[in-house]
Design a protein that fits this description.
Blueprint (H helix, E strand, L loop, with lengths): L11 E6 L2 E10 L2 E7 L5 H20 L4 H4 L19 H14 L4 H13 L13 H11 L3 H20 L37 H9 L3 H11 L5 H4 L7 E2 L4 E4 L1 E4 L2 E4 L7 E4 L2 H14 L26 H16 L8 H12 L4 H8 L5 H28 L1
Antiparallel strand pairs: 1-2, 2-3, 4-5, 5-8, 6-7
Helix pairs in contact: 3-4, 3-6, 7-11, 8-10, 12-14
Length: about 400
């Protein structure tokens, strides 16, 4: 047994049983000779891991800080040592504890709200006892979720953080989330090419933009014209106030954002910026004055006449609601192929790139610290423009 693995470290052996080979650790605790198995694949790397784990355990035993249940929560020897474990704790119990811990740590309200939504998003796992959260259970959840890879990664990252406490308490030897490799069951995000550029950039053409304008209601038209011509992020334009508009110098100052209904700073420090207002953006703002200017608050407000807003809700156009209702309706009415509203920002960027604008200026207007992000997102558009520009220069030289 174990001959194919060569000489094994002291205290490590390989045992055969009905379910296959298992790595066994031998040690002495409180004068009792103990044999415990690790339910992990037998590989050279895992044998080294087992040896390191055994050394860690022996050090703790010597210092009298060893918690048997922390390493082997399902061991039959727990009763011998008088150790009791509550194996009924569910996933939701640890999620609730994690949420409370985040509140005590003073995390930002938007982060707390994000965690609350993540907790709701994994409700199918809430009632499962953590000891029953097996790789097979998680695999079934992943394959049946219908979620995009990025969404699943966000959920699993959150679950991993919350369930780490189950390991600390000795309920499970390993974090259940670490027992499954997401990449084995979900396809990769196809938004980034091997060159590092994104291929989810799908800007609108001038004809499509005009068709969208032609099918907007007045308040929708002002917002959509403004975003197409400033490239602001949804979290930024929804937080925009009239005091941020400089009509004299014809620019908008971006200083805040709204995430999960919480006002905060911009996404990055470079996000605090000024964007020049072209004639279309200025016209959109002048037209919007008739709707919200006298309120001296958000530029793009909900026009509530009879319905009272919930106490904590900000009186502004919510990007999610805008996308689901106004934006979807406008694109359907105009006959334009659906793309999500963020493509207005991509359209702003690609139009300036195509017009030959200085890329440092474009990066600044978009809220990037340097053009690096431009090349990452819009590399193919920049390359296409440079090729056209070079070809035009050559043609001009030939004509001379």
């Amino acid at each position: 047994m174990g001959k194919e693995w060569g000489k094994l470290p002291r205290g490590i052996s390989i045992r055969d049983n009905a379910s296959g080979q298992r790595m066994q650790l031998a040690f002495t605790y409180k004068g009792v000779k103990c044999r415990e198995q690790l339910i992990i694949p037998i590989t050279k790397a895992n044998i080294k891991y087992g040896a390191n784990l055994l050394g860690e355990m022996q050090n703790k035993i010597e210092r009298k800080t060893f918690n048997y249940a922390e390493y082997f929560p399902n061991s039959s020897k727990l009763k011998l040592f008088g150790i009791q474990i509550d194996k009924s704790k569910r996933v939701i119990d640890y999620l609730d504890e994690y949420q409370m811990a985040c509140l005590k740590r003073g995390l930002s309200p938007s982060t707390i709200e994000g965690y609350r939504k993540l907790k709701l998003s994994v409700k199918d796992l809430h009632e499962i006892a953590v000891v029953d959260l097996t790789p097979a259970t998680l695999k079934a959840y992943v394959t049946g979720s219908g979620n995009a890879p990025k969404t699943l990664r966000n959920k699993f990252s959150y679950l991993r953080s919350a369930l780490a406490e189950a390991v600390t308490e000795g309920l499970v030897p390993l974090n259940p989330i670490d027992t499954i490799k997401l990449s084995n069951y979900v396809s990769k995000d196809n938004k980034v090419q091997l060159s590092g550029t994104h291929n989810d950039i799908d800007p609108f053409t001038p004809n499509e933009i005009q068709a969208i304008y032609d099918h907007c209601r007045p308040s929708e038209l002002n917002l959509i014209r403004f975003v197409f011509n400033t490239g602001m992020r949804p979290s930024e334009w929804s937080a925009l106030k009239w005091s941020d508009i400089d009509f004299i110098n014809q620019e908008v100052h971006v200083t805040t954002a709204i995430v999960h209904n919480q006002v905060k700073g911009t996404k990055t420090s470079a996000g605090r910026r000024s964007i020049p207002l072209n004639i279309i953006a200025l016209y959109a703002l002048q037209e919007q004055k008739a709707f919200t200017f006298l309120h001296n608050d958000f530029v793009f407000m909900k026009m509530q006449t009879r319905v009272q807003l919930p106490k904590k809700e900000l009186n502004r156009v919510d990007p999610d609601s805008f996308r689901k209702h106004q934006w979807s309706r406008v694109l359907k009415a105009s006959g334009v192929r659906y793309r999500y509203p963020y493509q207005m920002r991509h359209t702003y960027a690609t139009m300036h790139i195509s017009s030959g604008e200085n890329i440092w200026k474009i990066a600044k207007w978009l809220g990037h610290a340097s053009p690096e992000m431009l090349f990452r997102h819009y590399g193919s558009f920049i390359e296409e423009f440079e090729q056209k520009d070079t070809a035009g220069t050559r043609e001009g030289n030939i004509n001379k």
